Amino acid sequence: MSSDHHTTEEVPPLTETIAPGTATDPPLGADGRVSLTVDGTDVTVASGATLLDAVEAVETDDHVPALCHYDRADIGPRSECRTCMVGTERHGIVPACSFPAEAGLTVQTDATAAAEARSVNLDLVLSDHNLRCTACGKNGRCELQDAAIEGEIEEPRYGVLDDRDEYEPIDDSSPFIQIDRNKCILCNRCVEACNDVQVEGVLRIEGSGQDTRIGFQSDAATMEESTCVSCGHCATVCPTGALVEKGIEDATTIPIPGFTQKNSVGKTVGSSGETKGPMTPKKRDDAGEPAAEPADTTGGDWP
């Protein structure tokens, strides 16, 4: 041992001076819950929840629709429709579907500015929508229809699509899914279901301004020509009648002679009659070659 040897203190573990609660860890002892007030009612939600979660947990003074919101973590919210605006004392008017719940926050659904914002934004959505509900396959199960009824809207303040005669043709080309863009509210649910959940990469939002619409990433002109595998998830998450599974597109229409879902628009793009892929295996089996007619075992003509 050298003469210049000196005593060395014991080195502490590297983690000894790192306090818990740093980085993304919750504060030590926290239970992961957030308490706030909605319309005078105290409510506690999970950490990371939105104001909409808190609003839906209590009986609110005003109805708060959230048309672009879908209740699962992998779809939205995008705050597209802005029909869920609520008032807060700290931040003013905010979209409840995407704004995080904060401890101690006071929320008012009946705040004058918030109620007016919801009303205006809902009217804007309705003004660009085919409102011939009795000829729609989602009649009675449409979230936009429910919001309009709850809001007691009889006539949207900005007019309706029918006034402008700007209907797009119905895309009836696919054997499994029908697209009526006149009923699309551009909520983006179908795009995320297709791209983020099913990971098929078929749908997209294209265009800008009044020309914004649901389109196809393959630049196809119709659903039949697209790379759709006919899983049906886009139709499942659609809040309106913009995307409906074939076979039930007229299931809830009111039977008025001469008035159907298709002629409510007047223009339809039909199928080419060709069986196209790719499709899911089950859909491919269902849409394959027609079964051969039974053999004539009678020795004569069919009766």
Overall pLDDT score = 80
Strand residues, percent: 5-15%
- The name CATH uses for the topology of the domain at 166-271 is Alpha-Beta Plaits
Shape: globular
Strand order of the largest sheet: 2-1-5-3-4
- Helix-strand string: EEHEEEHHHEEHEEHEEH
Distance between the termini: 114 Å
CATH class categorisation of the domain at 166-271: Alpha Beta
Helix content: 10-25%
In the CATH hierarchy, what is the architecture of the domain at 166-271 at level 2? 2-Layer Sandwich
Which radius of gyration do the C-alpha atoms yield? 27 Å
Description:
- This protein has about 300 residues and is an alpha+beta fold.
- Among the domains are: about 90 residues, Ubiquitin-like (UB roll) (Roll); about 110 residues, Alpha-Beta Plaits.
- About 20% of the residues lie in helices and about 15% in strands.
- The chain has seven helices and eleven strands.
- The strands form four sheets. A five-stranded mixed sheet has the order 2-1-5-3-4.
Give a brief outline of the structure.
The protein is α+β, with helices and mostly antiparallel strands and 303 residues long. The protein contains seven helices and eleven strands.
